[in-house]
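Checklist before submission:
- one chain only
- standard amino acids only
- sequence pasted in full

Submission:
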Amino acid sequence: MTALPAEFARRVLHDLGSEQGAALCAALDEVPPVSIRLNPAKCGDAEALLRSLGAAERVPWCVEGRYLSERPQFTFDAAFHAGAYYVQEAASQFVGRLAGELSGRRVLDLCAAPGGKTTLYASLAGPQGLVVANEIDRRRVQVLADNVRKWGMGNAAVTCCEPRALGDLEAWFDVVAVDAPCSGEGMFRKDPASRDEWSENNVRLCATRQDGILREAWRALKPGGRLIYSTCTFNREEDEGALERLLAWAGDEAAEAPVAEPDEAWGIVCGRVGVFRTYRFYPHKTRGEGFFAAVACKAPDAAGRAAMPKGRRSMMTPVDKATAAELGRWVRDPESMRFASVAGTLYGWPEAQADAVRMLSETLPVIYSGVALGQVFKGRLRPDAALAFYAQLDREVLPAAELAPDEALTYLRRGEVAAAKFAEGLNLVCAEGRALGFAKRIGSRVNNMYPNSLRILKQ
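Returned file contents:
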């Protein structure tokens, strides 16, 4: 492994002292732990799944988090492709404890790709809530959208725009989370390439970028709402320094957020920056990668009134009764959903946030939202692959073909699967009861409908 950058090592020894600094540097050359987070809506027989993955113990600060005894080949696990769990670094799962009560709330995940924290917030927000997940990079936003689809909650909207465009949704969100782009020092052992990319100049560039993002995050936050700030770096300029610079201009608009104290046994280094509560994860103290998190509130009496920029033309076309009835057959509680057509594809959204998503789609570039249902031909739905991942899919609407592990991998590679386990016509394809997609049997042949963009390429 490449040696730690010399300037980084010198700074760590200065900031932490020789003993603690040396312990941190040594830990960065160790093998990192592997952890996952279960999807409570889709994990099914969780104990059997955890045994198959070699789960060793719980991540203490996250109910669904688990450490694994070793890193399996996730690519070849059908449960991973079904969205039964997310491979997420343990320390980053801590943000769920800082978010407060999210059920029914609007959450903005401002730097969201690849989607670990987005899917965590989606589970916490539930069907009455809404998570707006933004990613500025057009390549990375597609990965984010894929992970949101596979998670299957149906309560997220994925956008691709500058933070300023989301700041223009003034005082609109109950929680705004900024997992800021940073110098990546906390990833030095997980991603050795990050050592070569590190420089003091990059630290300064990241800090400047973070300041701009935080200004827009603060604008988007409601009075009384909660701001979560996090990075995967140890650098004070990007961590506590970013909070100090925010407080310098936010002034009395910032207030303390009520948060339960973490257990001392977890090894988290707790601190304060003004009203912000801060949490540092050092790999030599906690079982996870380097991570920094902080939380505060916008004061309830802070200036700001919810505002939505003037929208463009409507992007959603309501469906007729016959189409709504056909779509309703495919979901467990159709009365709690609203259906519409967007660019030729039919979608569904939880009723509680459907109007909010409609307004978003009129003002921002929304890449994906709700659940893509498909297209109706001659009164019958031709389902989109995303519908198979939807946690509220009605499993009684069509027959299910249960595949063995080797058959499931063939399906996930878009290979030819034997027809024996399929009923004539459209089938839901499952492995250990978890939906993977759709396939259609026509006589002795099966048409594999798994998306080409998601197929397994690795042999």
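Reviewer check: The chain has three domains: 99-298, 308-384, 398-459.
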